[in-house]
Amino acid sequence: SYVLTQPPSVSVAPGKTARITCGGNNIGSKSVHWYQQKPGQAPVLVIYYDSDRPSGIPERFSGSNSGNTATLTISRVEAGDEADYYCQVWDSSSDLSFGGGTKLTVL
Amino acid sequence: EVQLVQSGAEVKKPGESLKISCKGSGYSFTSYWIGWVRQMPGKGLEWMGIIYPGDSDTRYSPSFQGQVTISADKSISTAYLQWSSLKASDTAMYYCARLRCGGDCSSYYFDYWGQGTLVTVSS
């Protein structure tokens, strides 16, 4: 299956910008989706199709995808954004892959 | 309102069988794929497989093929995940989630998730 690589952890100060990457071979040719999972809760979709936001997700969350790297960007980070974040892609052979996850720590 | 409600936590012994459920409401259950995702303690998300309740078409992740069985009963809008012989390594949280695609359906993602079912396998 398709391998997605995420950094295990990212730290950012409140009010700053966090960038979480998701690497994959020519990932720019695929659509990338992102999920937020807070401790003890089910994952929540925060970005789909590289850069679209579901209703209810703040505009502070944005995404991009090009080349071998997709990026989830969280602007004006708040304490409540502290969570694990996972990227995900769908392969045309009906296979689905998740990245290993990135723990976002708000300092 | 779309909801996926999963069955409660289970404690089982190795070798026992188990079937957990996921009931959908607030949408046409037969028109969307449902997927199952495993999360072992302290670990990441792993896709197990998906089912289309409309015709029971089922696809498995190669990692889980032959290890579990996914099924659905569209008459009661419920999907299932089943084990015939549990192992201690099956201890995990299991989530069901609705799979959907965008306009051109070139990709799929999970837009709604169940609350999770914790399965503990211990002698």
Please summarize what this structure is.
With 107 residues, chain A is mainly β. Chain A is built from no helices and nine strands. Chain B has no helices and eleven strands.
Task: Report on this structure.
The complex is a heterodimer of chains A (about 110) and B (about 120). With about 110 residues, chain A is mainly beta. Chain A has strands at about 10, 20-25, 30-35, 45, 60-65, 70-75, 85-90, 95-100, 100-105. Chain A has no helices and nine strands. In chain A, strands 1, 3, 4, 7, 8 and 9 form a six-stranded mixed sheet that branches. In chain A, strands 2-6-5 form a three-stranded antiparallel sheet, with no helix packed on it. The model of chain A has no long low-confidence stretch (mean pLDDT about 95). Chain B has about 120 residues and is an all-beta fold. In chain B, a hairpin with a 4-residue loop joins strand 5 (about 45-50) and strand 6. Chain B starts with a strand and ends with a strand. The relative contact order of chain B is 0.30. Chains A and B meet through strand 3, strand 7 and strand 8 of A and strand 5 and strand 10 of B.
Gyration radius of chain B, in Å:
14 Å
Instruction: Summarize model confidence as the mean pLDDT of chain B.
Output: 96
Order of helices and strands of chain A: EEEEEEEEE
Please give the count of helices of chain A. 0
How much helix is in the residues of chain B?
under 10%
> Over all CA atoms, what is the radius of gyration of chain A?
13 Å
Tell me the overall shape of chain A. Answer: globular
Q: Strand share of the residues of chain A?
A: over 45%
